[in-house]
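testing teh design pipeline on a random one, pls ignore if ur not involved
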């Protein structure tokens, strides 16, 4: 295998021979960074326009470059472009093809630029687009929850702690808990966009350039707020990717909790929700089964997203400034996390809209497990003047009695309750039903239907403000 290889046509000037096959295999990123083709071409177009504008290259060269780049864009989109591992990455694949197409003028494109600022730019543009996709997807998920919350503002279900029946809540209230979680995710997405909204183009290899470039112009042309301020940081920073990944990991973790609840709720034992055939699968051996596979997969895919965050943190850890080739390993993690997260959010949005809620089963479950015991204790405090700790004790005895008779609390005869504590009166039955219980919890953020409806109105208004006029309309903090 001593076949003499020619040196790299893009940077091989000082190299006598080409790379060993294994070197090429480990070095090439074209297998995955071809995903950045549109961003790469966009960046090169903006760069070449600025070079012409500032007189660094001629208008004629720029015209050829732009024409060539647009041709390459259509070739890639049509699937006719031939990617080559010898040319390492997307940047050199595009530039080499540009030379094929337009000849010598192609060599002027890379003036006052390095692959270091080029890749930092392309990747930032890609991550920014992805953050905007996640933004829109989260808005759709939140809207799905708002609709379900509205429909079920007064549907009583058991609220759980330790997955044990705790107190009755409304299903609308439970849905609104997810609205809060996903709205925080949305606010993290918007913060990340805001922080990363700077263009690294023109930082060149790491030190800036002696050419009189206009970085403000390229920043603006590429839709960034402003250029980055330090050329060394510009090529060594991958915080925008880390922030996307940490935001993605937190969001995926939220989605996994929702997925788990859907798995639990859709068991025949709970029977709170039923997924349609669109979101469930059958068993190949047990004909009676309907499995919540999509929810289980969302639950599992969280592991992938979280793992990618750790992978990238570990790649970046301990890297000296400025660019190191380690940073080429930033992309696959981000691409896979993005694709996975997009799918997870879409699947959960589908399930939230799809699931059929069994209000009767929820109410039945809410009524069992002595979920209104706290209401009895609160009544004893409010109406009979007991200190809460004593009321807790009295209630415990009432629950024990009801349990021994296998009866709900509100079925205990008044005489028996009075035997436990003589201060109890018939009025107590007004708070022992689950509906009375949820209705009474009208404190700010509480589960009472009227409070839930108020929170829905609040979020609908806020979301409207936050989506009007683009992602930066309101940060949602
Ligand atoms: N493919 C490289 C990456 O993804 C591009 C930058 C290469 N720069 C360099 N000096 N070798 O990071």
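output:
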């Amino acid at each position: 295998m001593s076949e003499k290889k020619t040196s790299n046509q893009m940077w091989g000037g000082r190299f006598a021979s080409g790379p060993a096959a294994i070197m090429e295999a480990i070095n090439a990123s074209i297998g995955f960074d071809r995903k950045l083709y549109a961003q790469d071409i966009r960046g090169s177009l903006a760069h070449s326009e600025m070079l012409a504008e500032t007189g660094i290259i001629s208008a004629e060269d720029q015209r050829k470059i732009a024409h060539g780049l647009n041709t390459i864009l259509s070739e890639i989109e049509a699937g006719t472009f031939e990617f080559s591992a010898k040319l390492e990455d997307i940047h050199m694949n595009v530039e080499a093809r540009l030379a094929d197409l337009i000849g010598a003028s192609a060599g002027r494109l890379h003036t006052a630029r390095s692959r270091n600022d080029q890749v930092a730019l392309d990747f930032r543009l890609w991550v920014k687009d992805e953050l905007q996709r996640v933004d829109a997807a989260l808005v759709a998920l939140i809207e799905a929850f708002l609709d379900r919350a509205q429909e079920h503002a007064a549907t009583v279900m058991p609220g759980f702690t330790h997955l044990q029946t705790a107190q009755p809540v409304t299903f609308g209230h439970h849905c609104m808990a997810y609205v809060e979680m996903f709205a925080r995710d949305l606010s993290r997405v918007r913060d990340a966009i805001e922080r990363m909204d700077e263009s690294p183009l023109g930082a060149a290899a790491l030190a800036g350039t002696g050419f009189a470039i206009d970085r403000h112009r390229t920043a603006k042309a590429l839709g960034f707020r402003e250029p980055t301020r330090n050329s060394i940081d510009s090529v060594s920073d991958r915080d925008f990717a880390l922030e996307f990944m940490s935001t993605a990991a937190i969001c995926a973790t939220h989605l996994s909790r929702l997925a788990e609840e859907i798995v639990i709720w859709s068991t025949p034992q709970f029977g709170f929700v039923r997924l349609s055939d669109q979101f469930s699968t059958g068993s190949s051996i047990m004909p009676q089964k309907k499995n919540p596979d999509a929810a289980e997969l969302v639950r599992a895919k969280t592991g992938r997203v979280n793992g990618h965050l750790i992978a990238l943190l570990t790649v970046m850890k301990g890297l000296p400034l400025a660019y190191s080739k380690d940073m080429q390993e930033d992309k696959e993690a981000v691409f896979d996390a993005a694709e996975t997260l997009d799918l997870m959010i879409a699947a959960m949005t589908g399930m939230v809209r799809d699931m059929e809620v069994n209000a009767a089963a929820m109410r039945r479950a809410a009524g069992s497990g002595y979920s209104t015991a706290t209401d009895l204790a609160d009544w004893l405090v409010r109406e009979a003047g007991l200190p809460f700790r004593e009321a807790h004790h009295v209630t415990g005895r009432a629950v024990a009695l009801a349990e021994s008779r296998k009866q709900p609390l509100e079925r205990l005869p008044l005489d028996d309750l009075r035997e436990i504590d003589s201060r109890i009166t018939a009025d107590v039955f007004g708070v022992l039903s689950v509906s009375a219980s949820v209705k009474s919890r009208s404190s700010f953020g509480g589960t009472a239907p009227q409070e839930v409806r108020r929170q829905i109105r609040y979020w609908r208004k806020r979301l409207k403000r936050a989506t009007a006029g683009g992602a930066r309309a309101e940060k949602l903090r």
